[in-house]
Structures are given as structure tokens and as C-alpha cells.
Design a protein that fits this description.
By secondary structure, the chain is an alpha/beta fold. The protein folds into 2 domains: 235 residues, Putative sugar-binding, N-terminal domain (Rossmann fold), CATH 3.40.50; 175 residues, 3-Layer(aba) Sandwich (Molybdenum Cofactor Biosythetic Enzyme, Chain A), CATH 3.40.980.20. It is built from 16 helices and 18 strands. Strand 6 and strand 7 form a beta hairpin. The longest helix is centred in the C-terminal third of the chain and has 21 residues. It binds adenosine-5'-diphosphate (ADP) and the ligand O=C(O)[C@@H](O)C(=O)COP(=O)(O)O. Ligand LB5GJZVW binds next to helix 1. Catalyzes the ATP-dependent phosphorylation of 3-oxo-tetronate to 3-oxo-tetronate 4-phosphate. GO terms for molecular function: ATP binding; kinase activity. Belongs to the four-carbon acid sugar kinase family.
């Protein structure tokens, strides 16, 4: 019976969290979409279940409904603690979805307060006095102000989350964290007494993650990025609630061709696309052309890729600069541009796998959700880490015509837009053969 039930608002975020739990010693599986209680019952011996939703940018009421349904399934499966995972760059809008989902989960669990701890110092995300920084740069000057769907125009998370919430939002500042576990617990008690239900937690370094983890180990709900998950397993083990295992499982080998599909437009992904394109074949997609002739755009991309497969990795991308994204959005509409690019990349990802790709990198959280959905994958096993926040995962894919349609193993790396070193797209294939 799993001890920890997690709900992640996108797919790259889910693998990021699962990766940190596995690396901390918890046996973890990632399931795709709201699970049935019976599907969870069949998972066998696991310590944590991560439910990957695609709820970050859907209407808040839908995100709340899906998250509550996932929570109910995890409760039925016997989980004792719960974790709501969102982005380390707090990707959301003034309407949601972090606040509404967190408040609904607190209410269903009958819990008074949860921390909101997005920081992940290993990937350069820190929170100081409630303000989020990416590698020392304020969030709203880091490139995230140009995000196609969730432009982050304010780095004060107390203010930003406050706009999304019915209740009050508080702060656990870094000086309190420096004073240690008891000081944090006292601050949580004070905030709870004052009627606060969500508290942004400062985090400057890994020690703060450990202090936070120990301070909230008894809380029913933790919300945050994946960083704070690193601080939770040890206190749970020390309290005799779980046993910790050795590191991530080996995934074995996959054979077959390799490819990258990228729909992320983050500054980091743009660097990674440029680095890959200087070595291997890469094809750029134009959203306006996709809008005019969607089927042809997909067919042509696959026709371009097929003869190259096997000779080294190929990349197909819609990744573009903020001005180009804004131009496409003003012609097509923001939501429509995102959805049609996601649909095309999903069909291309599935088409590449049908054509023999067995290790596929997908860049972008929404894009990953679309590709994994098109492949009909239900579950991911977590394997070796490529860079902080991004592991290789293994999936069983049932759409194959090979071996009488028997499922084949597929290596998938779902890369957050902001994660990974510049050479990620090439080096990843050396980590997992
Ligand atoms: N050239 C483009 N013009 C407009 N929107 C785009 C373009 N390329 C990608 N998109 C959309 O931008 C969004 C990127 O989000 P996502 O995949 O989550 O990336 P990230 O991980 O960087 O947030 C997706 O909805 C995608 O379809
Ligand atoms: O916490 C993070 O930064 C990631 O786990 C994450 O949520 C990724 O989201 P995208 O940047 O949209 O891929």
C-alpha cells in the first residue's frame, strides 16, 4: 500500500517529482490521468504514486475537479500523506490553478494549512521573502514573463497566490528556516491560528529543504515543486512510517531509433534546440502553416524524419522566440495556438514511435502531456537521471504492429522547458542506450 499519494499538474512535473522520490529511496510509479481505485490497487509494492494530470492551464474548475478525483482514488488506495506538485517557476495565472486546487485538496482532507514551496535550489529556483528567483534573476525577468500560456509577470508569490485564493496567504521566511524545525513548526501554528491556509515557504538552499521536510512531515498535504520532496522521506523513515530502498531501478536497453520533439519556448529549450541543430538534423514547424493545413504539416514532418531515423537522433520543434510566439498568438489566439501546436506535435511524436523510435525526448510540460496522451501510455517507471529534474522513464506502448501487436518498451524523457543543460538533447541518449 503506497504511503504517499501525489497529484502533479503536468507530466514533466510529475516525472520530476517521481525522480526526486526515487532518488530519496521511495519506490515510485507515475500513472497517467485520473486513475481508478482498482488500477491503483494493481500497482503492487510501491511507496509513492504520482498521478500526472494535464491541469495546469485548463479552466480552474476543471483542474479542481480532476485533482479532487485523483485525491479520492489515492485515499481509497490507502495513501496517508498527499502532495500537490506544481512548477518550480509557479506557472499559473491570477485565476489559478495552484490556489483553487490547493484549497480544494485542503478542504477534502480536512487539513488547516499547507506550505507552498516551489523552490528547487539544485535547478537554480530559490524563494527569498516570498519572491521567486531563477538562477538569481527575478522570475518576472527570467524569460518566464514570456511563457506562451502562463506568463509570470510578478515574482512576489504571496501576492500572486493571494489573487488565486479565497483564504489568506502567509509566509515562512528564510530567517525562520535558518532557526530550524521547531521555529518553522511554531510559525505554521501561528499562521494557522491567524486563519491562513497556504504559506509560501522561503527556500535558499538544500538545508532549508531538509528543515521544511522535517517540519511538515506530519502535515496531511504538502504543496510545491519537487524540491521539498527531497526533505520528506528521511523524517518519514525515522518515524517508522516507510522504509527507504536503494536508488532508481535500471531500465534496461531500448534499441531502435532516437528522436526529440519540442514544443517548449523557454529560454533554456531554445538554447538546447540551437545546440542540437548545430550537430543533427532538425525541422522547425510554423504554427500558421499548421493552422492552415494541419494534416499535411504532420505528414510532411514525418516524411522528413523517416529516412533519417537510425542514423542518429532527429529533432522536430515549434520552439520559437517570444516575438514569433506572440505573432502566432495574435493571429490564432493564445489558447488556440497552444492547442493546435500541441496536437500536431502529439501526432508527430506518436508517428515517430510508430516509425521505430524507441527513445523519445519531449520538451515542454503541456507538450509532454499531449504526446504521452497520443501514445496512449498509462504508466511510467522512473530510471536514471539525465539532469536534475529529468530522468529517463520506461513505458509500455501498445500501439505497435511488431510481434503481433505485443506491447514494446519505450524510453521517454519528459523535459521541463526550463530544465537541463544546454547539451541535454544529445547527452541524454548517452545516459540510456
Ligand atoms: N511557435 C509557437 N507559437 C505559439 N505557441 C507555441 C509555439 N510553440 C509551442 N507553443 C505552445 O506553447 C506551450 C508551451 O508549453 P509547454 O509545452 O508546457 O512548455 P514549457 O515546459 O516550456 O512550459 C504549448 O501549449 C505549445 O503548444
Ligand atoms: O517544477 C518544475 O520546474 C518542473 O517539474 C515542472 O513543473 C515543469 O513544467 P514545464 O516547465 O511546463 O515543463
Amino acid at each position: 500500500m503506497a504511503f504517499l499519494g501525489c497529484i502533479a499538474d503536468d507530466f514533466t512535473g510529475a516525472t520530476d517529482l517521481a525522480n526526486n522520490l526515487v532518488r530519496a529511496g521511495m519506490r515510485t510509479v507515475q500513472v497517467i490521468g485520473v486513475p481508478t481505485a482498482s488500477a491503483l490497487a494493481g500497482l503492487g509494492e510501491v511507496d509513492a504514486i504520482v498521478v500526472a494530470l494535464k491541469s495546469r492551464t485548463i479552466p480552474a474548475a476543471d483542474a479542481v475537479a480532476q485533482s479532487r478525483a485523483a485525491l479520492a482514488a489515492l485515499q481509497t488506495a490507502g495513501c496517508k500523506r498527499f502532495y500537490f506538485k506544481y512548477c518550480s517557476t509557479f506557472d499559473s495565472t491570477p485565476d489559478g490553478n495552484i490556489g483553487p486546487v490547493a484549497e480544494a485538496l485542503l478542504s477534502d482532507l480536512g487539513a488547516p494549512l499547507a506550505i507552498a514551496a516551489p523552490a528547487f535550489p539544485a535547478t537554480g529556483r530559490t524563494v527569498v521573502n516570498g519572491e521567486l528567483f531563477v538562477n538569481g534573476v527575478p522570475l518576472n525577468a527570467s524569460g518566464m514573463q514570456h511563457h506562451p500560456l502562463t506568463p509570470m509577470t510578478d515574482n512576489n508569490l504571496v501576492r500572486w497566490l493571494g489573487k488565486q485564493c479565497r483564504g489568506d496567504v502567509g509566509l515562512i521566511d528564510y530567517e525562520t528556516l535558518d532557526r530550524g524545525v521547531e521555529a518553522v513548526r511554531m510559525q505554521i501554528a501561528n499562521l494557522t491560528g491567524a486563519g491562513v491556509s497556504l504559506a509560501i515557504a522561503d527556500t535558499v538552499n538544500d538545508r532549508h529543504l531538509a528543515v521544511l521536510g522535517e517540519a511538515v512531515a506530519d502535515c496531511m498535504l504538502v504543496t510545491g515543486g519537487s524540491g521539498v520532496a527531497l526533505g520528506l522521506p528521511d523524517p518519514w523513515r525515522d518515524a517508522g512510517l516507510i522504509e527507504l530502498q536503494s536508488d532508481a531501478a535500471e531500465l534496461g536497453t531500448f534499441g531502435g531509433a532516437t528522436a526529440v520533439v519540442s514544443g517548449s519556448c523557454s529560454a533554456r529549450t531554445r538554447e538546447q534546440v540551437a545546440a542540437f541543430s548545430s550537430i543533427y538534423p532538425a525541422l522547425a514547424l510554423d504554427p500558421l502553416r499548421i493552422a492552415e493545413h494541419p494534416a499535411e504539416a504532420v505528414d510532411q514532418a514525418l516524411a522528413w524524419a523517416r529516412p533519417k531515423l537510425g542514423a542518429g537522433p532527429v529533432l522536430i520543434y515549434s520552439t520559437d522566440a517570444p516575438e514569433a510566439v506572440a505573432a502566432a498568438q495574435s493571429r490564432l489566439g493564445t489558447t488556440e495556438a497552444g492547442a493546435l501546436v500541441e496536437r500536431a506535435l502529439a501526432q508527430i511524436g506518436a508517428g515517430l514511435v510508430k516509425a521505430g523510435v524507441r527513445r523519445l525526448i519531449v520538451a515542454g510540460g503541456e507538450t509532454s502531456g499531449a504526446v504521452v496522451g497520443a501514445l496512449g501510455i498509462q504508466m511510467l517507471r522512473i530510471g536514471p537521471q539525465i539532469d536534475p529534474g529529468v530522468p529517463w522513464t520506461a513505458a509500455r506502448w501498445s500501439g505497435s504492429a511488431e510481434a503481433d501487436g505485443a506491447p514494446v518498451d519505450l524510453g521517454l524523457a519528459l523535459k521541463s522547458g526550463n530544465f537541463g543543460e544546454v547539451d541535454f538533447f544529445t547527452r541524454a541518449f548517452e545516459v540510456c542506450a
